[in-house]
Amino acid sequence: AGIGKCVAMDLARRNARTILACRSRKRGQAAVQEIRAATGNPEVVLRLLDTSSLASVRAFSSAVLREESRLDVLVNNAGVSGLPFTITSEGLEQTFTTNYLGPFLLTNLLLG
């Protein structure tokens, strides 16, 4: 939704293979279908990612590095605000992990 979906739509219009990294399979698949229909680009795919979970970040990064021949652009735009103070199952504060630690780890793992 929002900025991420607009960026994905623009990349898909340029015929880029576009990976949507989403927490929700249902919402992500709906976005994939909408973007494919609007752009005619079948190379729009969904991969599940929750940046509040470092295990999810590691699994996503590993899959991308294994399955994709190259990665030209990474857009880190997901984030949360206004959440109550919560500790993740990994013992980290959720908002900080979602907005900073997860994207930082993702970027560094994908640098290869």
From TrEMBL:
GO molecular function, one term: oxidoreductase activity
SUPFAM superfamilies hit by this protein: NAD(P)-binding Rossmann-fold domains
Short name of any one Pfam family annotated for the protein: adh_short
Record keyword Oxidoreductase present: yes
Keywords: Oxidoreductase
InterPro entries in the record: NAD(P)-bd_dom_sf, SDR_fam
Protein family according to the UniProt entry: Belongs to the short-chain dehydrogenases/reductases (SDR) family.
UniProt name for this protein: RDH12 dehydrogenase
